Amino acid sequence: MADPQRIHPAQDPEAPHTPTAPLVPRGASKSDRSDPTEQYPPFQRTIPVMHSKPPKKKRSCLCKCFCWTISLLLLLIVIIAIVVAILFLVFKPKLPKYSIDGLRITQLSLGSDDSLSATFDVNITARNPNTKIGIYYEGGSSITVFYTGTQLCEGSLPKFYQGHQNTTVLTVELTGQTQNATGLLTTLQEQRETGSIPLTLKVKQPVRIKLGKLKLMKMKFRATCNLVVDNLDANNTISIKSSSCKFRLKL
Predict the structure, then answer these.
(1) DSSP notation for 103-168
(2) Looking at the domain 97-250, which fold is it?
(3) What is the per-residue DSSP string for 212-243?
(4) Domain chopping of the chain, boundaries
(5) In this structure, how many other beta carbons lie within 10 angstroms of the beta carbon of residue 127?
(6) Of 16, 56, 105, 207, which residue has the fewest beta carbons closer than 10 angstroms?
(7) pLDDT in 10s for each residue of the chain, 251 residues
(8) Strand, helix or coil for residue 84
(9) Given the DSSP bridges, would you call strands 150-155 and 142-147 parallel, antiparallel or unpaired?
(10) In whole angstroms, what is the distance from residue 136 CA to residue 197 CA?
């Protein structure tokens, strides 16, 4: 059997031709003015990359401040050193000298309550060897006498001014009372038999130095004197067999 014949409709050549719209792929843009067949890449937004920078200005300011501070401190130290050197060359300071020249005991007795009462009169000589420096002895001083570490009596120096190349002799009364001193008095009596009794005298004295017309700040003068006496009998002549003193000045 023969295949059926297919009939295709004929196209009129004079009929208007309707253009077929081209296919636009996904992701492509279409423009009315351009070629409809032209394809564009998909739009992508560019985000600028921000690079963090170290705070150079702040660090630079800190370094400058630190350098200026160190420079000012060094300059101040140099100025102070120059001033001290000039004062030393001009005034030529020397430490004052002290000596214990005499000791008299008016009381050294044991009470009914085993307390030892002591009264000493100490003769102190203070010498200022400086030619351009004066010394103000301020209040608040203390002089203490010890025997083998036990305090026997204490007192204080009077306030006075010592001029240039001046020698001042002072008599200071020291008083004290030691509790439970029966054993201490027994030791003193045994030590007296040897003819050598060691005593320690400590001095704490606030002073002000006068340079010309300038009065400096208050300083602390300390002295420690080691004495050896022949006896400690009340109302008796006491001989100082040896005496040595050490001095120290603190700001």
Answers:
(1) EEEEEEEE-TTSPEEEEEEEEEEEEE--SSEEEEE-S--EEEEEETTEEEEEE-PPPEEE-TTEEE
(2) Immunoglobulin-like (2.60.40)
(3) TTEEEEEEEEEEEEEEEES---TTS---EEEE
(4) 97-250
(5) 16
(6) 16
(7) 445 555 555 555 555 555 555 555 555 455 455 455 555 566 566 666 555 555 555 667 888 888 888 999 999 999 999 988 888 888 888 888 888 998 999 998 888 888 999 999 999 999 999 998 999 999 999 999 999 999 999 999 999 999 999 999 999 999 999 998 888 888 988 888 898 999 999 999 999 999 888 888 889 989 999 999 998 888 887 889 998 888 888 77
(8) helix
(9) antiparallel
(10) 34
Distances in Å between the alpha carbon of 238 and those of 102, 110, 121, 195, 245?
A: 8, 20, 11, 11, 19
Reading the block at residue 172, the tokens are 């200071």
Residue showing tokens 């400590």: 202
Cβ partners under 8 Å of residue 226, min gap 6: 198, 199, 200, 242, 243, 244, 245
Residue 177 and residue 98 in contact, taking contact as beta carbons nearer than 8 Å: no
